Amino acid sequence: MNTSMNYSKAEDWYIEEEKFDSSWLGKCEAIMCLGNGYLGLRSATEEEYLNEKRGYFVAGTFNKFDDREVTELPNIADIINLQMIINGCCFTLDKGTIKKYSRKLNLRTGELSRCIVWISPKGDELAIEFYRVVSMADLHLIAQKVIITPINSNISLKIISGINGRITNSGSQHLSDGDKRLYEQKYMQLVQTTGESQIDFVHNTSLSFMIDNETCELESRIIIERRKIYMEYEMDVPQGIPLVIQKISNVYTSREPDNADIGLKKLQEKSLSLLKNAVAHGYDRIAYDSATEWGKKVWDKTPIKITAEDEFDQLSIRFAQYHLAIMVPSHDNRMSIGAKGLSGEGYKGHTFWDTDIFVLPYFIFTDPQLAKQLEQYRYLSLNGARAKALSNGFSGAQFPWESAWLDDGEVTPVWGAADIITGEPTKIWSGFIEQHITSDVSYGIWQYYKVTDDQKFMDQYGYEVIFDTANFWVSRLEFSEEDGLYHINNVVGPDEYKEHADDNAYTNYMAYWNIKKAMEYYQYLKEERTSIFNKLLNSLDLDASYEMWVDRADKIYLPVPREEDLVIPQDKYYLTYKEIDLTNYKSQTQVDTIFLDYNIEQINHIQVSKQADIMMLFLCLEDMFSYEVKKANWDYYEPRTLHDSSLSLSSHCILANDLGDYDKAYDLFRKAAGIDLGTNMKSSDSGIHAASIGGIWQCIVYGFGGVRMINGKLRIEPKLPKTWSDLEFPIIWHGQKLIIKINKNRLQIENITKEAEVEVTIYGKSYHIDDRLEVDLPEGCQL
Amino acid sequence: MNTSMNYSKAEDWYIEEEKFDSSWLGKCEAIMCLGNGYLGLRSATEEEYLNEKRGYFVAGTFNKFDDREVTELPNIADIINLQMIINGCCFTLDKGTIKKYSRKLNLRTGELSRCIVWISPKGDELAIEFYRVVSMADLHLIAQKVIITPINSNISLKIISGINGRITNSGSQHLSDGDKRLYEQKYMQLVQTTGESQIDFVHNTSLSFMIDNETCELESRIIIERRKIYMEYEMDVPQGIPLVIQKISNVYTSREPDNADIGLKKLQEKSLSLLKNAVAHGYDRIAYDSATEWGKKVWDKTPIKITAEDEFDQLSIRFAQYHLAIMVPSHDNRMSIGAKGLSGEGYKGHTFWDTDIFVLPYFIFTDPQLAKQLEQYRYLSLNGARAKALSNGFSGAQFPWESAWLDDGEVTPVWGAADIITGEPTKIWSGFIEQHITSDVSYGIWQYYKVTDDQKFMDQYGYEVIFDTANFWVSRLEFSEEDGLYHINNVVGPDEYKEHADDNAYTNYMAYWNIKKAMEYYQYLKEERTSIFNKLLNSLDLDASYEMWVDRADKIYLPVPREEDLVIPQDKYYLTYKEIDLTNYKSQTQVDTIFLDYNIEQINHIQVSKQADIMMLFLCLEDMFSYEVKKANWDYYEPRTLHDSSLSLSSHCILANDLGDYDKAYDLFRKAAGIDLGTNMKSSDSGIHAASIGGIWQCIVYGFGGVRMINGKLRIEPKLPKTWSDLEFPIIWHGQKLIIKINKNRLQIENITKEAEVEVTIYGKSYHIDDRLEVDLPEGCQL
């Protein structure tokens, strides 16, 4: 464990690493990742280390290495490398002496910096500063600046830098060794093309140098090797004089609609010419433009203020908003958010229910346009979902557990890590039977609709998805002669430690909800929106569908609370499984430690849950269950839940708050924020946890802020943690931007759009806000 | 430059590295490479370093990454890794303190060892010994032993070791992520399959531990990740007690005829069961069996003794014989020797004329059975050669410049390094127009035939190759109305600094020789071997061919010495090109430095040669040219030759000796041996230089030993370097093994086979040896 990570600076816009240890590179590479939704760039260092994991991804550029693998986001050529050789000594923090060290990510500007004073093994002392941005203003642009100042002597400096196309996805190479060119002795270009999907990438980069504020031309040499193009520069830098190196790079691909048909040659020319413009602007201007865009897009638009004893809490929401901004492909509705954003190879860039249930609410409530695009992605994936249903013998649309390019359908890998007992790889069942994703997608669309009131979206896209997912569910149901009811057997519910569950409560209830919602909208359209109704009537054979829905919806088996203790069985057999002492596995700072003692086959038959399962049901359909039922189930299941998934802590935090266990709620919030920002130095190696990061916002706004859309209505019932004095955040409800301010005993809501009145329920009372509302919090909710 | 390489130990069987520097890893990885002709294993260390280049190849398992690349030998999964974590500190020589260090390759036994005393950054002092062999007795087997002894404290030791399938060929991944299995909590298995050629590899490995001479079972944990299977072991090792770790591994592929049809599952079972046997034997037994086989196969069979002032000379021939033994695929005649053997990715495992002209003579004279297999490879490649001729509009068989699997035909890459002027990649013309390879193949066959007298080989294979290559040449010739002669325009000769040469002397003479040889054998077969003649008559349309040969052979333009200075123009325009001062490029210890100032287009038009060109002609067809002509051309061309190819120094050494410049000859021999064994720490990074290594033997036996096959006759005219007192080596001539001993003034030849009389010419006099011959050397040849 490394304690050098520092999040508690007075200026709470920074994540800082105060001590370098090359054993723990993955952490900062991921949590300090740069990006803009188009591209993601792990914050690997300019110099190389043995255990680094360079990562650079462009959203939506999926490729399949071979038929044994599933499609994934290719890890493209490294362009940030920059090797410095000082009097023959290669700069590396693994050798020599580090006199001063700080690495920081400025969340406000998106700038990464490192300030180092280093003494080389030969005794040369140098001050080296590194700066880097991925532009939020020009999605294709990466800019780097390095300032190197010899402190105790003149130095002879050699710089080697360029583009390295040898990077792989942990050994799988998605990209060809394409054209490598040097233009005008200055601009390097490397082309890569994916093997299966045939997407072209054009990388351009150029270095320039300033000494004593004067641009200078260095002696240089081009090196072209297999998959590599590099320039080598040499110069003498006098003692005390800073040399400023700028490296400006860009990437364009044929995936972008603008580039899809222009051909590779034109793409090479276009991207090169755009690089030349960027080089003319230089690092400082690029960084300034990017920071300005960050303000417009995130910080000025959705400022969230937490006044708390520990500034970590304020930082954690900024950290979350930063990552939510860099993970979302706001430029293209044909792609969605990966479970690791664009910050690592983990989960292959695939989209899970994490997006619909954990991440989407942030965008629904703060950036409806972006939320709409994410829902359009699901609509555009309908063909793949229909194909998946068909291939499984079902009707309608069955959304893939893991989703990549639109028509790809299911892309979940089939094999996972080793079974500790048999030594064989374990089968990943999610792609086959983790079926709740289909109602999660519908639920996300419904939530978007209800919060934004975007009727046009529903007319164009939304109803079709809700109808056709209902069609899947009625075809999926299994009739039992025994009880005359419909069951859903052999599924994985949210809790992935139960692999072949029958009648998983979450799955059954959500399927029921999905069909009921379809029935409701069928009636509504038929009665009030004839033209839309007629359009869908034909394409989806709506009348026949409706008959099936009506016939089956109320015959779905919905597990009810046991009489004796109000516990709802998570699935048919869960409550019959043996119980073991989970202390060791729950107290660990590591996840998955139970696998050191049991294999999945055994865990399947123990009363232990990986993550929120019933709890998710209470959150999604909260008005269907009473406080008593929720409390009883919390008391039963939470002690049996290891939180081995990053989808667990934030949901539990919200529920703990709902149920009145405020200290536990705050504790869970801190733990949730700690999944990436915490001291476990290995937890983020393969990328940040998008769902957990969406969950941080949910803890604050859904949890402590008490904001919820319940059955189409806005409800706000705040309850701040003891250590917070103020919380302020905006939400957008039906197109009206509301600024919500909460302090120890009052709630203030200001409608700054003022175009329409907003209805809100606060502790059971309904209010209408057209301008501003202030109410006292009930006593138990005051601090 | 690193001067820690030590070759001059009293015991001249070792190459030793006395100082470790992680900047120069490639050198020892290549020159200390282990292997057995079936597999080649670069001597990367157990622990990992940033600039290492792990390499592990199985002969003949070619695969093409994609259609932009040519086929190459895949760099397969790393199996020698073994990470040790001592009280939390990862063992690496880049940190901590090295108190003692020695890495040695024992050429006699093929065992690699490292003996280190190391103090970890935490102050733990350890003695660590590493031993490794690739078995010469069981071609599939690799054995490692590590002995770790804590010197100043008890230690807690963690060992992580397994199979890593993330290795690529400089970024290109040829292999799938296949099955990973752990059997009996002990045996790890990883399967890989090549993408295009669909060759299966099965890797097995197992670790075992002994402490205080007792086998012990350690606590272990299996780790399966993408392309990786590992075990992690933990134990406490008391101060002063050595822990012995053994790691035994094997590899089998579906390329082996035995395994081609049994299916992957059977191959997995078979290889696993063979590994279990090997594990039962243990490291010491495996190493002993391998060393025994080394004796039988190489050292006892072909002992070469040099008594010289500098033991480097003895070591250099042992080094050469060692590498010749590990590069030759003696198990399978469907594969040949790559330009880097199996010691690196360089030249992609492809076979060039290097094999036929530079390497083959060693095997022809010392192991005719192996030489025959190499010639059979050329015969089996005839279809590819015919296809190449046909696709270029020619008749007969045109051998590919670079050759891989039998029917692949031409596999030379089309693009090379960057042009320093235009920044564009340069086109590699060799595959298109470096055509002399076709007569080189015929020449190799003829040489094999004349030295071994293997008539059966000629009947079955040899004549067909010589006839069909002659057919290529007659179709390739270009008639000139101007002089009524046939020319060969637009070729690359041996000298690759002249890319579009007309009438390259070597090419024209060797084509002429090839056709003339075909004519001679046509006559011979027609007159004396009717059945063979009739067989080939039909298949090759011999009569029509013969007519063409007769019509054209004597009308081929053969450049003759200029009257004024006896210089033969290397090609039509060479002597007209401008001359520049080459001092800087000739005195460099680096090759290719001329490219820092000129691009290939410019070098094409300068009187500068990369390598032996006319000199190769004098060596191959030495009885066609007088001493005066040779001397005149040496004096003209050698100063214009940069020796930027490893195919140059040894040929020049032999000629210098022939021409009487003995000091120069010895100097060139040392330089030739220094190509791999010298102090240039980067020269062998991508693999050893097979041609240069064949050349070391040629310098000694052809050069100083004066052995030559001239027009079918054995000639021996020794001339030892001043610093040598004795030279002793065996050759096999017409099936008779001759032991040749040369000292300051006498030559002794003993026929130890004694089955037939051998005729030999020594300084113009002919002798017949049935037992033993001793003659005084002429005065000028005595020391």
Automatic annotation (TrEMBL), chains A, B:
Q: Cite the Pfam families for this sequence.
A: Glyco_hydro_65C, Glyco_hydro_65m, Glyco_hydro_65N
Task: Please list the GO biological process terms of this entry.
Answer: carbohydrate metabolic process
Coiled coil (UniProt feature) = none
Span of domain Glycoside hydrolase family 65 central catalytic: 318-698
Where the record annotates domain Glycoside hydrolase family 65 N-terminal, the positions are: 17-255
Domain Glycoside hydrolase family 65 C-terminal stretches:
708-768
Taxonomy, superkingdom: Bacteria
User: Catalytic residues per the record?
Assistant: E496
Output the Gene Ontology terms for molecular function: carbohydrate binding; glycosyltransferase activity; hydrolase activity, hydrolyzing O-glycosyl compounds
Q: What InterPro entries does the database record attribute to this sequence?
A: 6-hairpin_glycosidase_sf, 6hp_glycosidase-like_sf, Gal_mutarotase_sf_dom, GH65_N, Glyco_hydro_65_C, Glyco_hydro_65_M, Glyco_hydro_65_N, Malt_Pase/Glycosyl_Hdrlase
Positions bound to substrate: W353, D354, K610, Q611
Q: Which UniProt keywords apply?
A: Glycosyltransferase, Hydrolase, Transferase
Q: Where is the signal peptide?
A: none
* Family as reported in the entry's similarity comment: Belongs to the glycosyl hydrolase 65 family.
What's the protein name? Answer: Putative glycosyl hydrolase
Q: Name its species.
A: Mobilisporobacter senegalensis
> What lineage is this protein's organism placed in?
Bacteria, Bacillati, Bacillota, Clostridia, Lachnospirales
